[in-house]
Amino acid sequence: MITSNHNQVSNLDRLTKRSVRSFWMDGLWDLVIGGMLLIIALWGLYYIKFVAFPHWTWPFLQESGKSIVWFGLLFLVLVLTVYIWIMWNVLKILKNRLIYPHTGIAVHRFFLPMDSKVFVWYGISYITGLVLLYGLFFWIKGGFSVMSIPFIISPAAILVGIGWFYGIRRYLWIAGIGLVLSLLLELLVTTQANYMAGPRNFLDTLPQWGSPTLPCLVWAGLFLVSGLLGFINVQSQEREAKPAV
Amino acid sequence: MKPNQQFDLSELVEVDRIIHEPARAAIMAVLYGVESADFKFLLEMTQLTKGNLSVHARKLQSADYLTIEKSFQNNYPHTKYRMTRLGRAAFRAYVNKIKWLSKAVGE
Questions:
Q1: What is the SS3 assignment for B68?
Q2: Which residue from B65, B6, B42, B5 is spatially nearest to A18, judged by alpha carbons?
Q3: How far is B60 from chain A (nearest CA, A)?
């Protein structure tokens, strides 16, 4: 009994992680988050269009002045609320029809069971990464891009955290690809100098007005791909597991 | 007692006997990760047989470590299991004790 203590603990830990992991395995969560990020990115495109290039927008929007920015934010919140409500119901139907008959039903905890020491180290690493990126951006681009950095690093941090703690390999891949892609796009495509000289096109405005737009587009695409991969994977596993009639 | 001190056999006796059975420990481990789960979910996760799962879950229920709710969903019986606060504390204590024992015997 004593010699198997270590195995016993690691087996129990593995089982707990497996039950937590089941929440993400079907890929539906990824699809919902991907859709949400896509809405934010598309909204960002219109926002840039209005604020930086008013002559691109409809005349009545120009006449409304800056209040339209607040109206736009309100509109975004409203769209996201409606989206979440619709997706909540769509998810319920999809889970009941496609997932639960095979996996059974589990109600997942809002706060994940996690060791407090690990949580503290995770927080310290996240803040360090944030500070380093601010420094890197300031050094390369010659100005602060306050908005874009949290949008670049936060999805990566969430994916790495979940992927690492609960053993979901596809999240680690997506986090790596997303981080590199969004960093390269932000650092190489957009420059503060072009904006200061007077934006000529859409890309020149990104550092100032629409900085979350590019990272959101990258992450939205990757979350949607990840969701589809997860969903296809779970469905094909279930087909294989079905006994031959 | 710290792990590097002399190992006391009485520590072994203090291990929670209700949880210290592989099937019951597996049920507790799965339920520890979620708010609640149904019979099918527990069956898939633990790979126990239906009979074993029922018997061991009832044993855990009698120790107040989990609650069992029976209902009907679309005319099918549906059983939901939820770990109690006492169960969570007992499982945490059990895992800590086993970890401690592992260190004490130098595994």
A1: strand
A2: B42
A3: 16
Say how many Å lie between the first and final Cα of chain B, rounded. Answer: 17
CB distance from A200 to chain B under 8 Å?
Answer: no
pLDDT in tens, B23-64: 999 999 999 999 999 999 999 999 999 999 999 999 999 999
Domains and CATH numbers, chain B: 12-104 (1.10.10.10)
B contacts of A8 (beta carbons < 8 Å): 22, 25, 98
Q: Are strands B34-38 and A106-108 parallel, antiparallel or unpaired?
A: antiparallel
Report domain extents, chain A. Answer: 20-231
Q: What pTM was computed for the model?
A: 0.78
pLDDT digits (tens, 9 = 90+) for A151-203: 888 899 989 988 988 888 999 999 999 999 988 877 776 665 666 666 666 66
Q: What is the ipTM of this complex?
A: 0.85
Instruction: Confirm or reject contact between A114 and chain B (CB < 8 A).
Output: no
Q: What is the 3-state secondary structure (H, E, C) of chain A?
A: CHHHHHHHHHHHHHHHHHHHHHHHHCCHHHHHHHHHHHHHHHHHHHHHHHHCCHHHCCHHHHHHCCHHHHHHHHHHHHHHHHHHHHHHHHHHHHHHHHHHHHHCCEEECCCCCCCHHHHHHHHHHHHHHHHHHHHHHHHHHCCCCCCHHHHHHHHHHHHHHHHHHHCCHHHHHHHHHHHHHHHHHHHHHCCHHHHHCCCCCHHHHCCCCCCCHHHHHHHHHHHHHHHHHHHHHHHHHHHHHCCCC
- Measured between CB atoms, does A135 come within 8 Å of chain B? no
Residue of A11, A15, A104 lying closest to B41 (CB–CB): A104
Between chains, do B30 and A113 touch, taking CB under 8 Å as contact?
Answer: no
Cα distance from A34 to chain B (closest Cα, Å)? Answer: 24
Kindly list the residues from chain A whose CB atom is less than 8 angstroms away from the CB atom of residue B44: 103-104
Q: Which residue of B has its CA nearest to A3?
A: B107
